[in-house]
Specification:
Layout: H1 8-46, H2 49-56, H3 60-66, H4 70-89, H5 99-116, H6 119-124, H7 128-139, H8 143-160, H9 169-189, H10 198-212
Helix pairs in contact: 1-2, 1-4, 4-5, 4-7, 5-8, 5-9, 5-10, 8-9, 9-10
């Protein structure tokens, strides 16, 4: 009679477990991708659970195994967008940008991301007050890390002699973050009362440089 080596039977479920986890993660990723597309195309109200499930290639019941309801699914999608926004904006760890280039790059990359992400303007074109509140809530936890990052860039610029030695780092970081946030919001809101033109972007960049550079 053939005997199994010790541990063989016990190891079989371990081999199946990761495969099931991979399949589960793949389904969840497909649902989120479909949700992002539906919310971007149809807005929050128009994107139904049934439509999202259909585009993801899953049943409604399977979708509800991952997300309690559309509200939770939408919250996860928004957090993903904010995460991608931060990744697009923040300088890479191996970046060779000077402090001044880093500040300018963050500003420009943030605006570019907001202009090129269809989900944001699609949401704000329908019930803008409600959706703006949702976006701000999803972004809230990023505010302080954003300020600290800008403050660290300012401190690096002071240390290198590129920025004014008397610069109030805390206040300057807060002002730069607010300016970047406001102009990024203009980029995705596309409100004709508050246009965002290339000239305005260049003026904002010059304003930041003039405010912090060494005399």
């Amino acid at each position: 009679m053939r005997t199994e080596s010790p541990g063989t039977i016990a190891e079989l479920p371990l081999a199946a477990g990761p495969r099931r986890q991979d399949q589960s993660q793949l389904r969840r990723s497909r649902i989120l991708e479909a949700a992002r597309a539906c919310f971007g195309r149809d807005g929050y109200a128009g994107a139904t659970v049934a439509r999202i499930a259909r585009e993801a290639g899953v049943s409604n019941g399977l979708l509800y195994q991952f997300f309690r309801n559309k509200e939770q699914l939408f919250g996860v999608v928004l957090k993903q967008v904010v995460r991608d926004w931060v990744r697009a904006m923040v300088p890479r760890s191996d970046s060779t940008e000077t402090p001044a280039q880093a500040l300018e790059g963050m500003f420009r990359r943030s605006v570019d991301f907001c202009r090129s992400t269809p989900l944001l303007p699609a949401l704000l074109s329908r019930d803008p007050a409600l959706q703006l509140q949702r976006i701000q809530m999803a972004s809230a936890e990023r505010i302080e890390p954003h300020r600290k990052l800008v403050a660290s860039i300012l401190q690096s610029g002071i240390a290198s002699g590129e920025f004014r030695p008397d610069l109030d780092v805390r206040s300057a970081a807060d002002l730069i973050c607010q300016l970047q946030s406001d102009y990024s919001r203009r980029a995705y809101a596309d409100d004709p009362r508050f246009p965002l033109t290339p000239a305005l972007i260049e003026a904002a960049v010059r304003f930041i440089h003039d405010a912090v550079r060494a005399r």
